[in-house]
Write a structure and sequence with these properties.
The structure is a single chain. The chain is an all-alpha fold.
Length: about 200
Amino acid sequence: MDTKRKQQAIEVDREVRKLVRQIDSTWLTVGRLCARCKSEELYKDLGYRNFDTWIYDAVGCSRSRAYVAMRAASNLVPIRDDQFSKITMQNAAVLSLVPKSRQPDLVEAPQTQTEREFRETVDAAVPGLHLESNAHVEFWVPCSLAKVIERCLKKAKVLTQSDSRTDAIELVFSEFELRHPDPEKELEAECQAVS
């Protein structure tokens, strides 16, 4: 491989990773502020009936990232701002899954490691935590469908007794999966019943 081209690749990679860390550190700050707004019910002073309405207006399409950042920020032991700003949102989310008693021992690693490297560090330090990799899923839907989805997630959050959108989504899709294990056979049976 051409040395000059390899150096360019390294520089581009370094710049991308630096910018992602800057974006993520901003989102963690947003998460802390949103968590404060929710816990102190500051949204009411702004004229909003509930937190979900406020956060929808405040962060719009980025609600899911705000909720992930809130969960990460609220589940972390107190971390100095200079350390906090060096941790990507993905690494903060992983660190937030570690028992709080073990987090102080691991606070340095997420500042410099990639998510994959940090997951390996956590797996070695806290065996049995069973960290599962996350996938970012994004798609556009009509506003009317988005409202239906939000209503379903709100109901699922009540059932899961959790504010986690991930837990709510898991419940909704698990229910569907259990009710319709083989939709092709269901459809075939319906067609035969009509015939």
